[in-house]
Amino acid sequence: MANANGAAGEQQPVRDYLSLSQLLTAERLGSYLHWSGGDLQAAFALYEWNMSASAAVMHTTGMVEVVVRNAMDRALQDMAKARGWSSWFDRAPLDQRGRDDIRKARERATRFGSQPEVHGKVVAELSLGFWRYLAASRYLTALWTPALFRAFPDGPSDKLQEQRQVDHHLKNLLLVRNRAAHHEPIHRRNLLRDLDAAVAVTSWVDPSAGEWVADLSTLRTVINAKPTQPAPAK
């Protein structure tokens, strides 16, 4: 049977896991050793799989981020145009956190004023966390109802239900993305549910986007390669 370290029947390298374990903290290996019942080699097999899973999460959420941020930005640009604003960056009713995020993104995009501002570059500097918070209930009447629901034309028909589900999916995807980015354990997480969320939220922007994520994401393959948990010692 294939596992996270190679194809079925492939000779695996012999590693000095005892020495490697000394390079990692007890806290870092703790959940893996608990899963393996203290079997160090099995714990490292899961740890190595977790690294592959984290890479797949980053790849998948990266696709989601690009699709979602561009769709939400278009909706906000349309709102700005309809209201006669020069840019939604300046006029959207954001809280202090949102305004700070915009300011920092503009600074990075212009290299702190040394280059002219390009709208798309500013958008690219705004994190997935920024867009997730725009979908939160705090902006339901200020941004979602007048503009952002249009970013997800194939989502639930009820605006409130759509806002709740988009917020829920983006919140969970941001959580798993952050854990993956910081090399935290995600082996106990339902990653198939995260993949379903990624496909759903991008499909609501456009069905072709959902198909793109579903086809290119490596999460399902990695999930199927997860090592088998050792049987408890008798």
Entry summary:
The protein is mainly alpha-helical and 234 residues long. The chain has helices spanning 17-21, 26-36, 40-82, 88-91, 96-109, 119-125, 128-134, 140-144, 159-181, 191-205, 207-216, 219-224.
Secondary structure category: mainly alpha
Distance N to C terminus: 24 Å
Q: Compute the number of strand runs.
A: 0
Uncertain spans: 1-8
Question: Per DSSP, what share of the residues sits in E-state strands of 2 or more residues?
Answer: under 5%
What about the largest sheet? none
Mean pLDDT: 91
Described by the principal axes of the CA atoms, the overall outline is elongated
Helix percentage:
55-70%
Total domains, how many?
1
Based on CA atoms alone, the radius of gyration comes out at: 21 Å
Question: N-to-C SSE series?
Answer: HHHHHHHHHHHH
How many individual helices?
Answer: 12
Would you kindly provide a written description of the structure presented here, covering whatever features stand out?
It is a single chain. The protein is mainly α and 234 residues long. It has helices spanning 17-21, 26-36, 40-82, 88-91, 96-109, 119-125, 128-134, 140-144, 159-181, 191-205, 207-216, 219-224. Helix 2 crosses helix 3 and helix 7 (128-134) packs antiparallel against helix 9 (159-181). The radius of gyration is 21 Å and the shape is elongated.
